[in-house]
Amino acid sequence: MATHSDLDNETVRTLLNRRSIRKFKDDPIDDDTRAVLETVAQRAASSQYLNDWSAIRVTDPELKAKFAEFGRQPYIAEAPLLYLFIIDEQRNARIAERKGVDTSSPDWWLTASYHFTQAQNDAVLALHAMETAAYSLGLGCVILGSVLNDVPGLIEACKLPKYTYPVLALAIGKPDQEPALKPRMPRSMQFFENEYPSDADAALEGLDEFDATVHQYYDLRNTDRPVDAFSEQIVKVSGQDTSSKPLLPNAEAQGFHLEK
């Protein structure tokens, strides 16, 4: 049986102390560190060994400013290291065509919903591996789903070809802030034994206490007021209209067939 000392190591501490960093020092990230982070991302799990993700390293200041515009977060433009992780079946299409495969055929399935989802998963796993490695090296990160506010604009700005699709961005740099750890809900509300709980109320045991804890947390983005209780955040977000951010038309425009 593992002892407490067995379970307390540098990797676990790094993960338990993970927090989003939105303010970075001006210090650049050296080439060796960047190479390590990129190689770690490549070592992440890959479904069916398709390697169907890529990452755009964003270094051009004007393009960084575009990302900040898409994400509506000015600090994005100040990140020393910025990546956009993408689904990438473009590379596999070119490889298949070299082997005589007709990628316009309905029998070519790498643009179908199953592979789209698997490639999206692979991109997220690679990003998370890079993020964890960055934290272990004393760097800070923030994952940027906000850049997807304008998927067509993002595709145009990064010149993403057919059979590619943006997933998430990751900003990395030396931290210039020390935010408090954001609360997490009780494990009993998120980890279940063998099946999903049939008693919905029992599954929410601990919610009131969690709401109170979250409400006591102060986000550095709004230091003048406490964060809304978790339940209130759910209500607020669930009522926000997302019809301007459709997945299907944007994916179809990139050559994917999510109805398959």
From TrEMBL:
The organism's place on the tree of life at top rank: Bacteria
Coiled coil: none
Region (Disordered), start-end ranges: 239-260
Key words, A-Z: Flavoprotein, FMN, NADP, Oxidoreductase
Domain (Nitroreductase) ranges: 16-174
Signal peptide: none
Pfam families given in the database record: Nitroreductase
InterPro entries: Flavin_OxRdtase_Frp, Nitroreductase, Nitroreductase-like
Family, per entry: Belongs to the flavin oxidoreductase frp family.
Annotated protein name in UniProt: Nitroreductase family protein
Native source organism of the sequence: Bifidobacterium santillanense
Upper lineage: Bacteria, Bacillati, Actinomycetota, Actinomycetes, Bifidobacteriales
